Please model this.
Amino acid sequence: MPITIKELPELERPYEKLEWYGEKALSNAELLAIIIKTGSKQETSVQVAQKILNLEDTQSEGINFLRKISIEELMQINGIGKVKAIQLKAVGELANRMSMPIHVKKITIKEPFDLAKIMMEELRFETKEIAKVVILNNRNEIIKIKDIVMGGINFANLTIKDVLEVPIKMKAPKIILVHNHPSGDAKPSEQDIIFTNDLYEATTLLGIQLLDHLVIGNKTYTSIFSDMVQSTKD
Model:
């Protein structure tokens, strides 16, 4: 019979180890074990957690797998039922939200990277293309970030109306469009560039300043406006 958590020396148990030494002393498996709470008849919670970390799809991403692994995939692991799978997904989403700024209204966008660093951590693990319109005041301070579409694997379903509906209602002076590429490659597609040109024309007619369109990849991003300026210079 495998050893149980209760049979381990007290300071080797995840709960007690965290209490005595702090959370940074625990391995990823031990931290997950605290969330899982109990194992199976054959394995301790730490061993079940280690099985999760050993999944093939998690090897390149480490603990970040919690952001995108599905409840159904987690439930395929012996010792993980629906409740535990949901708990793990909740932890992943909390981590995702904690990586975002608390007071976005106080953030001033001076250059593309200021916004990209906010969006990269949130969007780089998404498996679908998501577009957001970032609404700014005249001082370039963010006043709202609005999800405008959660489509399939491409940008085809987005319309000018989708992007401008909320900014028009808010009488926003400035906006930035942001969307991700699930492939991880932040290079804009021809469709991205065409849409940006169309959006620029529409915002100009409406008196809204389109500051940029950012494409987010995996730990990288592209400013379409910067690319356009560079292309013009070339």
The chain is about 40% helix and 15% strand.
